[in-house]
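Milestone 3.1: sequence recovery, worked example.
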């Protein structure tokens, strides 16, 4: 378990690390950069760099934490990676089930694999199932999770790379939007964000605007901190309601 600066969660839990690129949003992957840095520092968990790796010694980390915590699962990987061993994934889900004091935010760019798994396995009551929708090219991912019987279903539109147009938010409880940061960041446009925010408001879906990233509302590049997270002068940091 590690505390995190990610604004929409409290801690991260990485029972697996490493991944590979599957869509345009992966181009400037922060996790890949961090993994290679940790490898260079001699961290034994990252001896294989950013290659997908299961880490059994991390499985029980949440069990040691009695304080109710919101966990982002696999900030450094994807639980539904093609190389995931299903028996190991079962163990991850068992830990989640065995720690009902916590809530777990699971995010994947492989929602078809998530769907296939949960069509034959129970969804823990404290698991939030999400997928990344960074561009209009991958909007089809939404339908893969929309009808799964999870308590919370969510979308991460980060880094938002184009206008998503009309969204079918049926069955979706939460949407996070954010711009890309870093030296190679691609610009985000205010209208793209407002389009999503308006649809969330109409459908009564919680909307969380995380950051502008490297490019501000004026289209100028500057530090992420300078650009901040205000949308038309307001902060939008809503969370879904847990029934």
């Amino acid at each position: 378990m590690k505390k995190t600066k990610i604004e929409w969660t409290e801690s991260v839990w990485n029972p697996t690390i490493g991944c590979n690129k599957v869509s345009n949003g992966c181009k400037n992957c922060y996790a890949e950069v961090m993994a290679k840095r940790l490898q260079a520092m001699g961290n034994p968990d990252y001896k294989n760099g950013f290659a997908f790796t299961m880490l059994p010694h991390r499985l029980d980390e949440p069990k040691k934490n009695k304080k109710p915590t919101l966990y982002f699962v696999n900030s450094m990987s994807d639980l539904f990676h093609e190389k995931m061993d299903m028996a190991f994934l079962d163990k991850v889900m068992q830990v989640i089930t065995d720690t009902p004091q916590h809530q777990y935010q699971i995010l994947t760019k492989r929602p078809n694999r998530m769907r296939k798994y949960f069509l034959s396995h129970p969804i823990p009551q404290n698991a939030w199932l999400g997928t990344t929708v960074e561009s209009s090219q991958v909007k089809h991912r939404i339908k893969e999770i929309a009808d799964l019987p999870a308590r919370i279903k969510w979308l991460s539109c980060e880094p938002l790379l184009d206008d998503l147009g009309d969204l079918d938010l049926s069955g979706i409880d939460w949407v996070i939007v954010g711009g890309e940061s870093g030296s190679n960041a691609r610009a985000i446009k205010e209208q793209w964000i407002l389009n999503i925010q308006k649809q969330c408001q109409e459908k009564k879906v919680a909307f969380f605007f995380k950051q502008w990233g490297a490019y501000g509302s004026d289209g100028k590049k500057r530090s992420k901190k300078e650009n901040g997270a205000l949308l038309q002068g307001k902060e939008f940091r809503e969370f879904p309601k847990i029934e």
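The chain has a mean pLDDT of 97. The first strand starts at residue 2 and ends at 3.
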